[in-house]
Amino acid sequence: MKAFKKILAVVLCFTLLLAPVTIGASAKDYSDKTVEQIEAEGRVKTKFLSWLVGDFLLGTIAKIIPNLDFVGEDSDKFHTDNFYEGNTYMDPNTDDYTWKLGYSEQSIIPEDFGVPFKYARGSYCPWGYSTGYYTDEDGNDEKMMVRTILLDDCTGRGLIAICSVDCIGISNVDCKKIRAGIADFAKANNIVAVEISAIHSHMAIDSQGVWNAPLTTVGINLLSKLGLTETRSGVNKDYLNKIIDSTAVSIKDAFKDLKAGKLEYTNIDVDGYMGARTVSRECDDDIHKLMFTPDDGSRGTLVASFGAHPELTSYGHEFDGRLTSDFVYFMEKLVNKSGNNFMYIQGNVGTNSVGTSKSDDGLSLEKHERAMRYGYEMAYICLGASMNKEERMALNDQLGDKLGIKEYGSTERYTNWYDNLDTFEAQPVNAVMNIQHKQVKLEIENTTSVVLLKLGLASNMINYNKSNGKYYTETEVGYLELGNVVKAFLSPGELYSELYVGGYGLEQSAIKSLRESYGEDVILFDLMNDAAGYVCPDETYAVLSYRYDPINHDLYDDAWCLTVSIGKNTASALMNGYADIMNSIK
């Protein structure tokens, strides 16, 4: 009877999680209300619904579910296996500009991909099994890869591997498994950091476990408490092992590819191509471009980072079954055609989405076509950032006029990518590379996360403290300097943009944004070395939030933190971690 109640509770939980969790506020007319009145109504709704859904419903379920094998014992000590602290800090100012960089990419698709009902996608609904690929306009399968660059500043303090995986996210636990797979090679070749990033495509195979036959996993794991089964992780082991093996090969191949050359950084303002969905609205709308040019004249490597969900193909196609890395694939395709390697590092993704009005050009497009055009347009902008208009026009023709300027350019709503685009200076990066990491302990206050982690659906670490009855996890933050030009914070989750750039969303918070604290030139890489969910400012955190929207003068309903977050104190814990790093290197 007890086991039945537990299973019933979990079914109730998933019914709740899979139902639409948006209680619309925008339909109400607030034109006759003051700001204070709207904010007061928002606070009442937030407090009641967060209690009802987060504390009462999910909180009750979280208490009913027993602690299974996935739950460890809380300790003051961190798990330090396969954690890299970084290198010895060095003054980034130098007159030397000689770098070494190696590049490699490997497929992350398992050899038996296509077996029915084996590989679920990390889409918006569970059980969306993958059976094939989207194809590009030339009929090619849209490959899913891990791309790696290996950087060496030639100072003797070690190399850094940065790996970008075409997946939705990888937990810190599984990032450490990837590092374990390359540990001996890293030690033998003085690799002092292995950074694992996810591009965050919802049209990739599920790398986090939540979408992979969740009720089957729940049933098996609950029966293990009765001694009838052994527990299993929601993450598909075959897929995870493929990522581990492919990443190891890519790092080794990148090491073989190391070449001397020059590194340049370009900050590209692309206003209108991305935007925040939450009420702060402020976000980083720049592309951060690194370009490595080998001295021997061989193939260069372009690294682009900006914050936007690669999900143009995803919405409405939850059970499509095909894989794609969305706009990232088409960015790479065009950059490759220019004669360069490509890597995309997810920027401050937060709640940011792509803005496609300029790349759609008023054309009637399918969702996948929109991803294609957006990717091509962003690639053109990256490649032509430091050119003048005439040079950009020549580049457009050289690469095949992928956006159809000759065919559609005279239509009313068409916007040529090179019109009204400033010329951006490429800055040479002096050859000093500093990397520092710090582990951070987080209390798991979000009851959704407690349920998912206790049941083994997601693979993030979960530890239980018997004395206070609370659950905790571990993650890591980082800081990367490339010369005196690039200063990048490494974020383990999806940081709400106000925590990075500031603005309205921090008005009620004691937290200062990263740019306010450390300079307007700092950049951010999200989903780096973990998939810790949305990170909202402590003071405005709620699993169901209703906040005043100053743009529309109404209430904005926000349920992001209900479905995927650690808890209300995550932001301050991470920001304290960044502060500890910055204080240690001063």
List the helices and strands and how they pair.
Elements: H1 2-18, H2 35-64, E1 71-73, E2 99-107, E3 132-133, E4 145-152, E5 159-165, H3 172-180, H4 183-188, E6 191-198, H5 214-224, H6 237-256, E7 259-269, E8 274-276, E9 286-294, E10 300-306, E11 322-323, H7 327-337, E12 340-346, E13 352-354, H8 357-360, H9 367-383, H10 389-398, H11 405-408, E14 427-428, E15 433-443, H12 447-454, E16 462-465, E17 470-482, E18 486-490, E19 494-495, H13 498-501, H14 514-518, E20 523-525, E21 534-535, E22 545-549, E23 554-558, H15 560-563, H16 570-585
Parallel strand pairs: 1-16, 3-11, 5-6, 10-12, 18-20, 19-21
Antiparallel strand pairs: 2-4, 2-7, 4-5, 7-9, 7-14, 8-13, 9-10, 15-17, 16-17, 17-18, 22-23
Model description:
With 586 residues, this protein is α/β, with parallel strands linked by helices. Helices cover 30% and strands 22% of the residues. The protein is built from 16 helices and 23 strands. It has helices spanning 2-18, 35-64, 172-180, 183-188, 214-224, 237-256, 327-337, 357-360, 367-383, 389-398, 405-408, 447-454, 498-501, 514-518, 560-563, 570-585, and strands at residues 71-73, 99-107, 132-133, 145-152, 159-165, 191-198, 259-269, 274-276, 286-294, 300-306, 322-323, 340-346, 352-354, 427-428, 433-443, 462-465, 470-482, 486-490, 494-495, 523-525, 534-535, 545-549, 554-558. The strands form six sheets. Strands 2, 4, 5, 6, 7, 9, 10, 12 and 14 form a nine-stranded mixed sheet that branches. Strand 17 and strand 18 form a beta hairpin. Helix 1 packs antiparallel against helix 2, helix 1 (2-18) runs antiparallel to helix 5 and helix 3 packs across helix 6. The termini are far apart. 52% of the residues are buried. Mean pLDDT is 92; it is low at 1-26.
